Amino acid sequence: MKVAIIDLGTNTFNLLVAEYGENHRYQIFHKEELDVKLGEGSLSKDFISPVPFQRGIDALKIHKKTIDLNRVDIVKAFATSAIRSAKNGQEFIARAFEETGIQIQPISGDEEAAYIYRGVKLAEIPYLKPSLIMDIGGGSTEFIIANSHELIWKQSFNLGAARLNQLFNFSDPITEDQINDLKNYLEQQLEPLFNETKKYKINQLIGCSGSFESFATMIKHKFSLARIKPLAKSRAINLIHFSKLYETLILSTENHRLHMPGLVAMRVDTIVFASIFVSFMIKRLNITEMILSQYALKEGVLQELMEKSQ
User: Fold this and answer.
1) For the whole prediction, is pTM greater than 0.85?
2) How far is it, in rounded angstroms, from Cα 211 to Cα 185?
């Protein structure tokens, strides 16, 4: 069975084309990430402005061409934070169906977190003790406490990179006072998470999706780690290397980041926030090991489809 899965995020619309068969065997044929910045200018108002609205529709048209070329049997499209919280989110879903034939399903933050856990599980990361899974999106950030056998706890927080960039209106470069204000805000907003982490000895952080992929790629360039192969399902991220990258990022200007090796242009305006967020979590929970999972929501949907087909 050949399937196309689209994750309609706040910053990017991501496509996965894969084929699966018996015994959970699968092959990924195509992955593509398109920059849409759906929440540009109005995310804090829970509204998709006309320009990013059209940008999103255009991105779906591009994905539709790829889907048609691959002659898939099933198309699954899931809308996350920006669309589900936008006053005109249903209008976007209707327009998308009218112009592309793609039926978009909005999912809750809890559903999103559950799919992310499934995706990480498919990445086959060995973590027997409870670990913290973190997926930083544009509109929300999902946290999951889990081990490789079960999901223990999950919650989605409206703490996405684009959303908080608009809320705090960070200067360029960011100031120490702004960093402290952000950390204080995170401490308050994440109280439910920290209440849960008190119950477990968590020292491993598993990071999903774009920001963590950027960290891994930037570290590879910054420290000339040529021996590291292209991103696979997962990879350890050296915490000392991350700390040094963090110090570089918080001192950087947007122009400086535009020329940083390993950082794609679509993440130039959010990577500083993401690095502060991750650094905060590492220190707050005394994390001693960090792993990148390149599998997240899309792969979680793929895993669910494989289970249902058995």
Assistant:
1) yes
2) 20
